């Protein structure tokens, strides 16, 4: 269990539920696909997982899959959609088979060796975008406990600004649908606390 100071804030960063493109193994990025029945059930399980947490603000990527997940998890609440929470842009590879993805952890051929040459984003750009967006959110005076729904790649890119994502992968494996990353925030600094997994 973690210890929270009076000045500490809490960010819960969640990946959306399973989508049609997830089960069809399609690269999503900035394009979109709807939640599956399983994705809806995942979101409802996540709702139960965090039902005891008192959130004061809610945010989502502008993607439908994220908004739908947040609405299932949080119910009828006011939330803000932010482009800064969007998934990585994969350029002309969006909607194509995941078989075109580089193998994760291969030091000789990475996402940055492929997608940015076809209109996609660099990982560093996604990391900066996510870090700025989430820092701006958590620096708001009345934001003490925030739930934000985003995407696997974007969440991983943000995590890499806080701690070593390779170590995370060794301990937890891939970031699964509706996984929730809990961070503490104080003095412009995020600290990873725990992974909440349905």
From TrEMBL:
Substrate binds at residues 15-22, 65. Pfam families: His_Phos_1. One of its GO terms (cellular component) is cytoplasm. GO terms for molecular function: phosphatase activity. Gene3D superfamilies: Phosphoglycerate mutase-like. The active site is at 16 (tele-phosphohistidine intermediate), 87 (proton donor/acceptor). This is Phosphoglycerate mutase. It comes from Kandleria vitulina DSM 20405.
